[in-house]
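worker-03 picked up job from queue 'complexes'. Input manifest follows; three sequence lines, order preserved.
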Amino acid sequence: MIWVTWRQFRGTILTGILTPLLISAVMMATTLVLDGVRSFGTVFFYCFGYPTTECVAETALTTASLATIALPVLLGVFVGVTVFSRDIERRSHVLGLTQAVSRRRWYWTRILVVFGPIVLAMGVLGLVSYWVRFRSFSGAYAFVGYFDSRLSFPLFGAAGIAPAAYTALGLAVGSALALLLRNTIGAMILTLVAMAAVLLVLPTAIREHYASPEIEKIELADNFYGGDSATYSSSPDALSQRWLIGSDYIDLNGDPVTVAWDTCPPNHDSWPEARPEETTAEFDARVSAYDRGVAAERIDCLRGLGIDHFENRYPPDSLFWRFQLTEAALCLLLAALLAGVAARLTRRLQP
Amino acid sequence: MIAYRIDRHSGIPAYVQLVLQTKQALRIGDLVVGDQLPTAKDVVGALAINPNTVLKAYRELERDGLVEPRPGLGTFVIASLAKPGMAEKTALTNELDRWVAHGIAAGLDRSDLEALIASALDARYHDTGDIER
Amino acid sequence: MTDTVLSMTDVGKSFRRNKVLENCTFDIERGSVTALVGSNGAGKSTLMSLVVGLLSPDTGQISVLGNQVGQRGIASGLSYLAQHKPLYPRFTVGEMLRFGRSTNDHWDDAYASELVDAAGVSTSARVKSLSPGHRTRVALALALGRRPEVLLLDEPLADLDPVARREVAQTLMRDAAEHGTTIVMSSHVLSELADIADTLMLLRRGRIQLSGALDDITSEHYVLIGEGDPSQAVGDGSVVSEAIGSGGKSFVVRGNRPASAPGWQVDNATLDDVVLAYLSDRSAA
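worker-03 finished. Artifact:
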């Protein structure tokens, strides 16, 4: 049965294995090229289309990263579905099911021989992708990620063991839908939709709950410009590589408070204008004084609303591998459930 | 070796055709004592008929005492239907034909000739007491 | 002494409120060649799928070679050739034989290869390049390679030219003669089956209307030719149907042949007469 499955699907298996391995090879090659050229990463936007070595390498790396993100979906659609739907549409599953092989064995051999190696190849890709990106600093060498945390989309899903886990899920979804619908195109479309939904929902609604976030507390008096203004956001030294999952004004009870943008000053546009007889230094000083005044007003206004401090919530970057394991476990669990469902659907498969 | 043929439109059951063809072969000497009849497998492989048809025909031939099955070896001819002197038959036929021609030339019609033959046969068989009576 | 290799007891199967099979009960004896006859859509394929374990019956039981048919897959002494003769198009014939070897415990590779050889098919030919006749013979070689005791064939001679039909029939009969294989084949073309089959099973509207030895069935029926209402002439027999195309002048009757029927001509019934009468729309059955 193993030989039969291999022979039936050798094209699919080879494509599914070689594509991620090829992308891995491209990634490694471009990284080594860039290693020889630069000692730090650069931003994609400045380089697209330019034929210099580093730009070509960077474009290749970017494309490879995007491919890594898209592959689990594509594999689910074009491998997960076709592994069963081709047989079923041609009704040659009747042949397979009328030999001395049980339906269970027919199904699981196919899953292991076709899906197994592909998931492993995606695992290799994920690890290579991780090595390429994060060995110097987060987001090295590609436009995606210079300012992003590796915990967020799209970096998280393109590195580590996540691509392999997503692929397992995609394949499971595709095969279950193929057995359920018995219609290739329909199963492909639904697989695409389902996987896109999963890859959308995971980073936006689910990942943040894997661990309780760290809380950065910013006192009202300490703010972005250190007193000259009163806007609040992340501290400047954490501008990149932090995945902010929430920031709010917090009141004395510890509850978040929503403040409309124009509730507290500044809500007027009367910034000082330069007077002709002022020197730049005098003007700057006057602007500073003005800003401090407005800041003080703002802080008083916020305090008046019961606000105590500003808060940023983020999972620390060091949790990357823990998050990877959690998300992979989630996906693999879901994949296993779907595989069980598909196995049951095989039992009901009609000629 | 005998090669069976089935005429599907003759109205005669297939197994009967096989029996008749076998007997014919025995009569004209295509099959002699000791010859093996074709296996059921070979017959149905050529004719695409049900193997039971062949078995039925062979059983009938066995009942008639013409063949016997030998387990593991096949079905073999044990008796012959060939009457000696086929050549004599040819001579007799020619003689009969000449006699008929003489009779016609003498002015006899068909029923006259038949009556003559019938009384000649009656005289013979009645005299010697052959079983055919 | 009867050796039943396949039996159905009161089997019923419906698809979405459509009753495809109802109260099907029959026994198939070892060594018989059964013709399963019925109009298109009568349920022949469904019946075979049930025996082979591809479908489960709603009611009733099926047993093959003494074992109940369940969800465990096809019974080990049974082989099946589906109507669409499924093969893998991109495999070569040699690889199809290897498929048979890999997926079956008792596989007679020499026999299967010999059958493929005898058909004049090269083992390196790709399945999708084969003619329908060659396809059927390769698929049949796969089924026979399992060395089954019972062989089910769903319309094996359909879509074949006369030469191929003859060759397939020869192969089947040779296998039956040599190995004593019990054969059940469905067809809606009678003439092909008349020489090969010794048993008939007729399926109409999901029920088995006739079942038995071919010779017995034809001798149980006769034909009345004449004008008028035949019911007076049949005695305790029953009129099956007006013979198709006879314009009210010929009737197929089941029962004891009357010695004479005034106003009627009595004739033997051929297999065609009987089957067409039962399958006809105007059948009283």
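worker-03 released lock.
Residues 219-279 of chain C form one domain.
The interface with chain A takes residues 45, 49, 52-55, 71-74, 76, 79-80, 82, 84, 86-89, 91, 95, 98-100, 102-106, 142, 146 of chain C (CB under 8 Å).
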